[in-house]
Description:
By secondary structure, this protein is of the alpha/beta class. It folds into two domains: about 15-90 and about 155-190 and about 330-355, 2-Layer Sandwich (Nucleotidyltransferase, domain 5), CATH 3.30.420; about 195-320, Nucleotidyltransferase, domain 5 (2-Layer Sandwich). The protein contains 13 helices and 14 strands. Strands 8-4-1-2-3-14 form a six-stranded mixed sheet, with helices on both faces. The chain has a five-stranded mixed sheet with strand order 11-10-9-12-13, sandwiched between helices. It has a three-stranded antiparallel sheet with strand order 5-7-6. Helix 1 packs across helix 5 and helix 6 (about 185-195) crosses helix 13 (about 350-355). It is globular. It starts with 15 loop residues before the first strand and ends with a helix.
Amino acid sequence: MALPFGDSGARKRRDQMLAVDLGGRTTKAVHMQRRGDGFALCGYLLLDAPIFEKTLPVDLLTEHLKAVSHALDCKCKWLTLTLGVSDALVRHVEMPSMPVEDMRLVLKNNSRVYLQQDMSGYVFDCQVASPAPQSKPNESTKGPPGQQKQKVLVASAKNQLIDDFVLAARNAGFIPDHIVPGVIGPINAFERALPEVFEKESVALVDIGFKSSSISILKEKDLILNRVVAIGGDRLTAGLAEAMNITYAEAEGIKIGMANEVQSQLEPLLTPLGRELRASLDFFEHQHDRPVSQVFLSGGSSRSDFVVETLRRQLMADCRTWNPTTTLKLALSPEQTAELEHIAPQLTVAIGAALTAL
């Protein structure tokens, strides 16, 4: 699934790409290359994200991107950036059949009609959804030209934010190639890592971020539902620190490494997240009359076995953490190779963004 807001020109197959996922607390970056019919992970990085109040200033983002490049020691100039789940709207709409370029223009001039809100000053991109398997070609083409309806996945973000990202990337010495909604990253990475499940099953992808978590429900490779829940790892860590009267850093370590020992404090903090995720599963299962077979978790908090087990009980579904690097060739240092299994769930969005551009 490719849903970029723009690139440096005609979209070409790149030989390599640096993808940077700008998180609320931690920036994740991956350097990937084409290797034959597959892809290689050549390096990755987790770096403290810049601290800012409302909007990340261009100069601060520029310096941060320079720091990422320096720490990775990466000579690649092609850059893909991700937008946080609160910075990009991703939604299905029904639109008349027309070229994607015309769809963008229609949305720009008629956002209230299709998105039920005034979105002046926003940039849009679109992807036509797969037709339903039961649809007959002769039925879908009935009606006057230009009046045929089709399901379209629309992404939008503030034009100023896109311009700031592009300017910062260029000031840091990069060629900005793609800017990708973060919610798309896990879907692209999952398609590559578990293609059979992606093609044949109904699954939920839950990415537990710092401030928010996203859930995307896929039905036989099509994105059916996506939703952002304003509960992330930060609330779990802060709540645990308050309950135990310990520092935030200590609580973060306990949450991942010793969660079973503090389950009485941690489990109530997970309940609101489980309730919101279960509501999304219920909505899908009621609308489509089929269960979600598995829930795949990513993000920093998903590394905790207790978090996974607690969500399994609350969602009443098979939950597990997954590794987005399983089908990638590894061209890493011995140190990074040894650490990768533990770090991999945090790289999901960045890997998916890189795959979008490659």
